[in-house]
Amino acid sequence: MPTALITGITGQDGLYLAELLLGKGYEVHGLIRGQNNPRTELVEKLVPDVTLHTGDLLDISSLMRALRKSQPDEVYNLGAISFVAYSWENAAVTSDVTGKGVLSMLEAVRLHAGDDLSSVRFYQASSSEMFGKVQQVPQTEETLLWPRSPYGVAKVFGHYMTINYRESYGMHASSGILFNHESPRRGPEFVTRKISQAVARISLGMQKDLSLGNLDARRDWGFAGDYVEAMWLMLQQDEADDYVIGTGETHSIREFLDLAFRHIGIDDWSSYVKQDPRFMRPAEVDLLISDPAKAKEKLGWEPKVSFQQLVTMMVESDIEAARAGW
Ligand code: NDP
Ligand code: GDR
């Protein structure tokens, strides 16, 4: 039975990935941060078969201990400070966790594996946010990186460190350049979930309106459940490599609002949505659209859930949650 260690197990992707790997018969271990992490309960409820180890990407000795205890064949490094807007106000800690944390995990794996480096495969959660001021549309694995946020800069560091460990030590280290992926488990600070939660509550008369930033921003949005499958596929290849993962479609926040409000029977949402400068960013990324051709050809990966299905899934789930008082 293969064994996997996941950092960021409490996050959206960590939970879907743990479910996927458990379904494939893996023994799954997760790194959990803090002395009393409030999301432990959620992990124990959704994926009770995962073994948890306390640890932090800021503390390499805790990573070494988690590796020693779990003895993984595969390490998925999903842990990060992942909210782009937060990264401008907390650039140093974002750099430490999202950037230097990758180096700590790579180094911990290298030291742990010793002479048998090929015994552990490594996945790094890179991001389309690295493209920032885009130099080419759609974006491929070869597109020049020009990050536009401290988060993006930190991800570029982690991305190149992963490539560097592959090239320097022959480590089986792959990097998934994932475009935005969402789900009912998405954190409520991200725009899609902020909208789906608000629309659900508006439909039940529990909320009047919703404040957002730039409604013209566009993203290539997919379903997180599809994307964790791509992570796993990358580590099943003979050769480690980098892959762009996305849908190849772009939609604006306005289009997301159109579909979400239409789902509750509202065609004109203008009186429900306010624009608030607090949610504007110091710099925006340009037009993000993926070209996932390499993933399709080499991994046989394609997204299954459409944009419309994704919006519907999120609004319905939040209506159910609001009704149940969660
Ligand atoms: P989430 O924000 O939902 O989860 C982030 C995880 O990182 C949480 O489990 C969090 O744990 C953990 N974490 C934060 N700080 C530390 C730390 N110091 N040490 C260890 N763990 C830490 O992110 P997603 O699940 O959405 O994303 C997973 C990864 O993929 C992230 O690296 C993200 O940057 C990247 N990514 C995500 C995309 C997306 O669209 N979702 C697209 C491209 C890349 P805690 O509960 O303790 O806070
Ligand atoms: P992003 O996701 O920054 O792409 O990062 P987010 O949902 O936060 O923003 C997407 C776009 O929506 C615009 N926007 C708002 N965003 C938020 N959060 N709140 C608002 O009120 C709002 N109004 C408009 C933003 O300006 C932006 O253009 C996500 C994270 O998961 C990263 O970790 C990951 O690397 C990238 O996706 C790919």
From TrEMBL:
Co-factor requirement: NADP(+)
Pfam families per record: GDP_Man_Dehyd
GO biological process: 'de novo' GDP-L-fucose biosynthetic process
CDD domains: GDP_MD_SDR_e
Molecular-function GO terms, alphabetical: GDP-mannose 4,6-dehydratase activity; NADP+ binding
EC number(s) per entry: 4.2.1.47
Keyword Ribonucleoprotein: no
Source species, domain of life: Bacteria
TM segment ranges: none
Record-linked InterPro entries: GDP_Man_deHydtase (IPR006368), NAD(P)-bd_dom (IPR016040), NAD(P)-bd_dom_sf (IPR036291)
Residue ranges constituting the NAD(P)-binding domain according to the UniProt record: 5-314
Catalytic activity line of the entry: GDP-alpha-D-mannose = GDP-4-dehydro-alpha-D-rhamnose + H2O
Record keywords: Lyase, NADP
Biological function: Catalyzes the conversion of GDP-D-mannose to GDP-4-dehydro-6-deoxy-D-mannose.
Family statement drawn from the similarity comment of this UniProt entry: Belongs to the NAD(P)-dependent epimerase/dehydratase family. GDP-mannose 4,6-dehydratase subfamily.
Name of this chain's protein: GDP-mannose 4,6-dehydratase
Organism (species): Nocardioides gansuensis
Gene: gmd
